Amino acid sequence: MWIGKYAVTRVAPAVLLGVCLLAAGNASAQSAQGLVYSRSPDTAVVEFTESLPELRGVGAGRVVRVFGDGRVDVERSPYLSRPGRHTGRLTPAELDDLVESLVDRGVLEYAPEAPPVRAPRRGDVLPEETSDATVIELVVRAARVGPAAAPAAAVPEAKRLRLRDVAARARAHPDDTALRDVAEACAVLRDLSDSDALVPTP
Questions:
Q1: How far apart are alpha carbons 75 and 10 in whole angstroms?
Q2: Considering just the CA atoms, what is the radius of gyration of the chain in Å?
Q3: Which terminus of the chain is more solvent-facing, meaning fewer CB atoms within 10 Å of its CB: N or C?
Q4: How many helices (H) and strands (E) does the chain have?
Q5: 28-30: strand order across its sheet
Q6: Which of 160, 197, 193, 166 is nearest to 64 (CA)?
Q7: Residue range 30-78, pLDDT digits in tens
Q8: What is the separation of C-alpha 187 from the centre of its chain, rounded to a whole number of angstroms?
Q9: Bigger pLDDT: 130 or 177?
Q10: Lowest mean pLDDT among 29-43, 50-64, 80-94, 155-169
């Protein structure tokens, strides 16, 4: 199953949802690509929440959580196609490829440019109050280490991004490669949530 059209060339051409059972440990592990992240079934290595403007006030459009043992949990709004909860599983290699694809797109280094600071004026609408933006919250708990480094025992510090209209902004600013790459990372996770290999859960 293809995870979108954004697969990086350094890893497998797609991230597939496997059906095998995994034996998961509680400590962090180092991938072949030099990434460290938890293999615990209780730790969400990746979290992706997309709030759509047309669904404002009725919850998120979709929530994707990928855990250290490869489990993928997806919650989709009742107002979207294939609503409800779905689950699937990635093999260790597939999970490595997914995390690598996000890190290769710079999510750990990305820092959205802050708007100019000025004193608020009467009648201003604060960003949190606008209702016409797609808001994505992305959390990645991973770190890249040198090839000689030993696996870390602790879970890497979480990288948290809050992105507003990232896909539209990337189209409007095609020369901003960092923004484009982060938009593609979000597209990978959105496509994962749409996978036909996910099965409904109660």
A1: 30
A2: 18
A3: C
A4: 3, 10
A5: 28-30, 35-38, 143-144
A6: 193
A7: 665 678 999 999 999 999 999 886 555 555 688 999 999 999 999 988 7
A8: 9
A9: 177
A10: 50-64
- What are φ and ψ of residue 181, in 5° steps? -65, -40
Closest by CA to 152, choosing from 70, 68, 66, is 68
Q: What is the DSSP letter of 18?
A: B
Contact 170, 180 (CB under 8 A): yes
- Of 91, 67, 86, 90, the C-alpha closest to 75 is 86
Cα–Cα distance for residue pair 6/102, rounded to 1 Å: 10
Say what percent of the chain tops pLDDT 90.
50
Rounded CA separation 180/173 (Å): 8
> Highest-confidence range of 10-24, 77-91, 142-156, 171-185, by mean pLDDT?
171-185
Write down the domain spans for the chain.
Answer: 1-110+150-202
pLDDT digits 0-9 by tens, 97-126: 999 999 999 999 998 765 444 555 555 444
β-pair type (159-164, 143-144): unpaired
Alpha-carbon distance of 179 to 23, in angstroms, equals 36
| Distance of alpha carbon 14 from alpha carbon 32, whole angstroms | 17
